[in-house]
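Me: Here is a favour to ask of a fellow structure person. Could you put it straight underneath, so I can go through it closely?

Assistant:
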Amino acid sequence: VLTTALLTWLCAHSVVSAKGVYLEPVAFINNVFSGQPPAPRKLTIKGELAQDIKNILEHRYKKIRLSYWQHQQRTVWILEEIGKERPITAGFVVENNKIQDFKVLVFRESRGWEIRNEFFTRQFSGAYLKTNQRLDRHIDNITGATMSVNAMKKLSRMALYLHNHVTTQ
């Protein structure tokens, strides 16, 4: 009986500890720019841009204005997407139309937290968009985290698309 109670507590504790802030968005931005981030810029999501994002996410993005940081050909995006039930906040660094870095910043779901691990996030390193707005590579799934994985694939496509949008204007 004690073993069952201990096992139940450990399982519940691991789920609770999987949720939370892994890295504050401000700290992520500061790390990317070595403590000297450029002033944030604003992008209004409307018209064709809104439709293209809707096509990538398969739903309308909840924000109308989006902050991003840009220095030369490097952009940083803090984006959110629902995993199963709650938003997952992720940070993307895009340079020369390729993902340079990607981190799960805030995780609010009860399952799927494994997406924060390097074995998953490094799959996105160097990824770019093909002409059909698809990633140039296959991203391996994680058993039990399918919805979180899918959310991060969509956000990576969105970050790449937004980078291309703001750097080619």
Notes: The CA atoms of residues 92 and 156 lie 7 Å apart.
